[in-house]
Amino acid sequence: MTSFGVERLRGRVAFVTGASSGIGRAVCERLLAAGLRVAACARRVERVRQIAASDDLLPLAADLRQEADILAAFAAVRARWGGTDIVINNAGLGHHAPLSSGDTDHWREMLDVNVLAACVCTREALADMRRSGIDGHVLFVSSMAAHRVPADSAVYSATKFAIRALTEALRQELRAAKSPVRVSAVSPGYVQTEFAAKYHKSEAAAEATYGAYPVLQPDDVAAAVEYALGQPPHVQIHDVLMRPTDQTS
To answer: What residue numbers bound the domain in which 165 lies?
Structure first.
């Protein structure tokens, strides 16, 4: 029978961004439980250290808006474990910053974190995978906003449409290079994380967003990530679209 399940990746090195809370933290917990080594990257590195007391967890402090921080993080993984086998581009943020009236700094931060940082992390991880010749994996945590445009979210949605394009473009690049590396995306709808409070700059608005009906939990999305990673080498999960059952859009 074909090997299936993330446990077959035991001992491999996963680089996870946005690891201090929400989906990123849940992904780290699942991968550690499955026997992977996890390089957990976040600005709030003290929160990352609370995930587990394990030699298989490498907490990394990095501001993904700074390329030098990303490069230093990957260098630390190479020094510790020889390189990255799997990269989970999870870090992302949103601002309520419409195209007709938004703040330029908010637009720039979304583009820097959601798109450019994911590109840099992907490039660095792929360099490690090429050197090792491993059948690695690049996974983007995207959004349902990559598939339709919610009101007043032009730039945030644009960053997620960019991730959708990058997923397909990288798939084509890898196939042209006859690489064993796979690429996947997971695109959730509403997930109960810190996202809504930051997006709306309001805890009350976040409670209204997440309180109208049962929304996804971070571990729901982490389970989809685990599913995509755990497929046998001849199976590539391109994009998982997942919503709360009661979400209408």
So the answer is: 11-242
